[in-house]
């Protein structure tokens, strides 16, 4: 796929997420890996709702700006994931309401913030580890993300929101949507209790779909 088409795809997916309330104002950032090995990302202080394909930030894997506007201060998180997950082609970082609410709960299980409510959560995400609160834009976030990225395609930043990857931008967006929906179901069910998948159910899914 050409760089021009990938630029249009990034804008289209970002606008769709904005229109459905996954990102508000200038919150969140999204990126994809280009065929030349560089990364295309949302510029700093941009909105998912009105991105311009021609002014997107194009950076090297070291973070050097090649063209477009200055990249988001959180581009370091994206680059950390790309380094650890060579199979990754797209990343979404959101301040979506249900997952951000989850990130603010006390007594979160930092190994996995969400139980296996549905097979789709297990197949698309598997587990959702939590990274302790670190101020947005700090290079320390990228360091903590990098420690987990090889084994997890999604992470939850405490009091902040999720960062989710996929083999391409389409899959990253689908994974983000599934994760946000799982968080919404979790809050809906929490007052009543819930039946979750058993460890055997999870093992079967992991074996069949080779999840990692």
UniProtKB/TrEMBL annotation:
Residues 8-187 form the Class II aldolase/adducin N-terminal domain. Keywords: Carbohydrate metabolism, Lyase, Metal-binding, Zinc. GO terms for biological process: pentose catabolic process. GO terms for cellular component: cytosol. Its EC number is 4.1.1.104. Its cofactor is Zn(2+). It comes from the Bacteria. It catalyses: 3-dehydro-4-O-phospho-L-erythronate + H(+) = dihydroxyacetone phosphate + CO2; 3-dehydro-4-O-phospho-D-erythronate + H(+) = dihydroxyacetone phosphate + CO2. The keyword Disulfide bond does not apply. Belongs to the aldolase class II family. AraD/FucA subfamily. This is 3-oxo-tetronate 4-phosphate decarboxylase. It comes from Candidatus Pantoea deserta. The lineage of its organism: Bacteria, Pseudomonadati, Pseudomonadota, Gammaproteobacteria, Enterobacterales.
């Amino acid at each position: 796929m050409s760089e021009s088409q990938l630029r249009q795809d990034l804008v289209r997916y970002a606008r769709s997420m904005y229109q459905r309330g996954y990102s508000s104002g200038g919150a969140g950032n999204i990126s994809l890996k280009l065929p030349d090995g560089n990364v295309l990302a949302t510029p700093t202080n941009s909105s998912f709702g009105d991105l311009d394909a021609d002014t997107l930030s194009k950076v090297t894997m070291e973070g050097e700006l090649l063209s477009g506007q200055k990249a988001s201060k959180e581009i370091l998180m994206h680059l950390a994931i790309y380094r650890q997950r060579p199979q990754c082609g797209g990343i979404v970082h959101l301040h979506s309401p249900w997952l951000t609410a989850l990130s603010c709960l006390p007594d979160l299980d930092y190994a996995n913030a969400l139980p296996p409510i549905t097979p789709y959560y297990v197949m698309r995400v598997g587990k959702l580890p939590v990274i302790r609160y670190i101020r947005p834009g700090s290079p320390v976030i990228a360091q903590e993300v990098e420690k987990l990225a090889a084994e997890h395609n999604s992470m939850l930043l405490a009091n902040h929101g999720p960062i989710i990857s996929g083999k391409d931008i389409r899959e990253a967006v689908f994974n983000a949507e599934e994760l946000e929906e799982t968080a919404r179901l979790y809050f809906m069910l929490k007052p009543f209790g819930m039946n979750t998948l058993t460890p055997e159910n999870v093992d079967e899914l992991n074996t069949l779909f080779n999840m990692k």
